[in-house]
Amino acid sequence: MAEAPTGIGSKPGWATGGKTLVRKATIVDPGTDDGRPFIADILVEKGRITAIGPDLAVPSEGSAETIDGSSLLAIPGLVNAHYHSHDVLLKGAFDVMSLERWAMRALPRFFPPRSDRELRLRTLVGAAECLRGGITTVQDMLSLWPLTSRQAEIVRDAYREAGIRVVLGIQLADTGPIDTIPYLRDILPPDLTGLVNGPPPPPGTPVPVAELERILVDLAPSPGDLVTWGVCPSSPERCSGALLEQLRDIARSLGSRLFSHIAISRVEAVGAQRLFEAFGGSPVRYLEGLGLLGPDLTLAHGVWLDDADVELLARSATRLVMNPMSNLKTRNGIAPFRTYARAGLRLGLGCDNCSCSDAQNMFQAMKFSVLLSGIAGRTDDGPTAVDALRAATLDGAFALGLEKLVGRIAVGYRADITFLDLKDPVFRPLNNATRQIVYGEGGRGVSAVMIDGTFVVRDRRLMSIDEDALAEELAGIMPAFRRDAEVVFARAGKLDPYLTRAEELSWGVDVRMTRMACT
Ligand SMILES: [Zn+2]
């Protein structure tokens, strides 16, 4: 039963979009050669940074708000380059577990269809967490089950309410776990096959690819829209070759980017040996064979890529986003940041799912991405805090194809700026701004967030969303959600022994690389 989304939770008329002059901010722009902070005024007009310099004149035409930036550290708005909003309501629901067992509990296709109200609320809650954490852009790879244009529109509209910049994509797949997880078909009792692949779509569900095409045309962004669309085949394993080709053609015909997952888990690496046998067991070479590689494709994770894969990604200018927190929580090891960067990849960073990460916190992602490289034991050869901040801003924008729009504090860029509080103890004394952002800041210092020239967070408060009303409405839907989730978890529990056995058998197979450091 469809319900009309309510207006509760949002603040109508919050956007200002006027001129803003920020006086004497300490600015870190990762696009400069040395990335060193400098003190300057920032002028924002019509959503764009129009001037940066000392003692800028107040614009003569129209009113401008002048803000004292002397205790603010301005960085480009953080880019969460890989995110899923569909499991926002499951944050904290799971402790560490394998990717394969987690997926059985968290993916929408194992749940009954969700209400329009729940979709809107979860989208707003996820956006609120991103915004409060200084994230101004997300790439949401969204699974809707079943896929309907109405629910896609609700999510799109919720993001517009929140005022966050989003590259939204509907994730499609047509191949179930029984065909992707090695050994599972051999060991799973036949009566559990239906559980592992999930229920069939409800009667009357539109054909997903046709519905996706309708969404991309009917909900096409207007000029300057903060919500734009990408096309998202779930992964080379979870999509047939025919589906990958269809989505490739749809993306190319609309000029959209493609987003997908790649080489997340060791179990996947074992599965790839069979699934992509004709391509040397490489999902990357398989994608190359289908004509998907190139600068219009962004891949997420890439933990279990070999040197030839990485070289091919770099040569084809395919873009890659690392997700260190979710990779560790789902026991997938560490993507080698240093090796990939040396091969020529510009790496974005993401916080991934809300139930396997579990925070939408780019400060955590930055710190993890640098410090995990220490496991290799060498010193002084990077990556450094400068690399991490660049990955979370400019290179994240590059991963989303937005590098000419956002990711820098520089004249001509859209005014997506995160302001950190220099009075926070983390920045006292201020010895090295970038290192203190990456190694010290956890999100507490996010004082204000500007997106497209409008303050969406101010004095640590969300301007676009009434958080008290949102919390109240959320509390109203959670009992029903939790009841549904308990049924899903109980079903998944029946599969655990077989998934665990499939994982054990997979771990016995040599994949000619390691992404684990110790036991
Ligand atoms: Zn993902």
Which keywords apply here?
single chain; alpha/beta; 36% helix; 519 residues; disordered N terminus; 9-stranded mixed beta sheet; globular; binds zinc ion
Q: What does this molecule look like?
A:
The chain is an alpha/beta fold. It is 36% helix and 19% strand. The protein is built from 18 helices and 18 strands. It has helices at 99-106, 116-132, 149-162, 177-180, 184-187, 193-197, 208-218, 241-254, 266-275, 283-289, 307-315, 324-329, 337-342, 362-371, 385-392, 394-399, 433-440, 467-507, and strands at residues 19-27, 38-45, 48-53, 64-68, 72-76, 78-84, 135-142, 165-172, 227-233, 258-262, 297-301, 319-322, 347-349, 352-353, 417-421, 446-451, 454-458, 461-462. The protein is globular, with a radius of gyration of 23 Å. Residues 1-9 have low confidence and may be disordered. The structure holds zinc ion.
- The rounded Rg comes to 23 Å
Coarse shape: globular
Low-confidence stretches: 1-9
Main sheet? 9 strands, mixed
Oligomer: single chain
The helicity comes to 25-40%
What would a concise description of this structure say?
This protein is of the alpha/beta class and 519 residues long.
Record the SSE blueprint.
Layout: E1 19-27, E2 38-45, E3 48-53, E4 64-68, E5 72-76, E6 78-84, H1 99-106, H2 116-132, E7 135-142, H3 149-162, E8 165-172, H4 177-180, H5 184-187, H6 193-197, H7 208-218, E9 227-233, H8 241-254, E10 258-262, H9 266-275, H10 283-289, E11 297-301, H11 307-315, E12 319-322, H12 324-329, H13 337-342, E13 347-349, E14 352-353, H14 362-371, H15 385-392, H16 394-399, E15 417-421, H17 433-440, E16 446-451, E17 454-458, E18 461-462, H18 467-507
Parallel strand pairs: 1-4, 1-5, 6-7, 6-14, 7-8, 8-9, 10-11, 11-12, 12-13
Antiparallel strand pairs: 1-2, 2-3, 5-15, 15-16, 16-17, 17-18
Helix pairs in contact: 1-18, 2-3, 2-18, 9-18, 14-15, 15-17
The chain binds zinc ion (ZN).
Zinc ion is lined by residues 82, 84, 141, 261, 300, 352.
